[in-house]
Design brief:
Layout (H helix, E strand, L loop, with lengths): L1 E3 L6 H5 L6 E5 L1 H10 L6 E5 L9 H5 L8 E4 L8 H14 L4 E8 H8 L7 E7 L5 E8 L6
Parallel strand pairs: 1-2, 1-4, 2-3, 4-5
Antiparallel strand pairs: 5-7, 6-7
Length: 149
């Protein structure tokens, strides 16, 4: 599991099944604060990198996490996230994590609409939007596995 911008979230403690590998990707100052308050463990790591652009996936390999079947989560997706940024995130995840998934929560309606465009990416197997609340949604993008495996 890779979580972009989770801050001091404790999702690892709630979801750990004894085998989970967790990587929190945060800007350097935030990563330093997280490590001070929630020190890294053998299965939970913090990477000091921006969660935007194409560079952050390198931290997944560096943390010892498998790149196949990785779930990337963006909790509390910013309301001001431009549609272009969503498309870039889908493209980066599709290229680096075949067989994996991208989950964005707390999406405003317009962002959920932009996420539906991910269906056009050739490596996307499925896009699902759920509306647990009237004004927000949770978006899930599943990526096809390479080589049919």
């Amino acid at each position: 599991m890779v979580v972009l911008g989770e801050g001091l979230g404790t999702g690892f403690r709630r979801l750990d099944n004894g085998r989970l590998t967790w990587l929190s990707v945060l800007p350097p100052a935030d990563a330093a604060a997280r490590r001070m308050l929630l020190p890294d463990t053998p299965r939970r790591h913090t990477a000091a990198r921006p969660g935007t652009g194409a560079g952050w996936p390198d931290a997944v390999r560096a943390a010892g996490a498998a790149e196949r079947g990785v779930v990337v989560a963006v909790p509390g997706t910013p309301a001001g996230l431009p549609a272009r940024a969503i498309g870039e995130l889908v493209a980066v995840c599709a290229a680096r994590f075949p067989g994996g998934a991208l989950v964005l929560d707390a999406l405003p309606r317009w962002t959920a609409t932009a996420l539906r465009a991910a269906r056009l990416h050739p490596a996307v197997a499925a896009v699902r939007i759920r509306r647990p609340a009237a004004r927000t949604a949770v978006g899930e993008v599943r990526f096809a596995a390479r080589g049919g495996a």
